Fold this sequence. Notes:
- The protein is mainly alpha-helical.
- It is built from five helices and two strands; from the N terminus they run βαβαααα.
- It has a domain at about 50-115.
- A two-stranded parallel sheet has the order 1-2.
- α3 packs parallel to α5.
- The protein is globular, with a radius of gyration of 13 Å.
- Iron/sulfur cluster (SF4) binds next to α3 and α5.
- Iron/sulfur cluster (SF4) binds near residues 46, 87, 88 and 89.
Amino acid sequence: MSTESQNVKELFESWILDAETKLSEQDLVQNMKSYLVGQHPEICGKCTPCRDGVIRMEQLLDMYTNETATLKTLKELEQLTYNLRSSRCSVGLDIGKNFEVVLENNYNTLYQPVKKY
Ligand code: SF4
């Protein structure tokens, strides 16, 4: 297993080779947000999971940054990531695929700040 400061796209490539590869915990949320923001030029707006979902996912990540995230925030992030499976084209599908890997391999980092006990 390796924990490196790499971006979300690189994570997916590494994950193919090593399913336990994780992103750096320190800048995880910022890394996830900047990946989503970087996708804006590709998003055409024709379908809801990608057009609205990505914006909402960014807002949820901002809640982590502002320390207002709760367990509900993480659950919604998971749901929106899953919803991207119904995107109409590979842009949304790829964002969802990459985020599924991020959530799968870095779940504890996102869970720790919002856990109730
Ligand atoms: S998934 Fe494709 S069709 Fe849907 S909004 Fe994104 S870019 Fe447009």
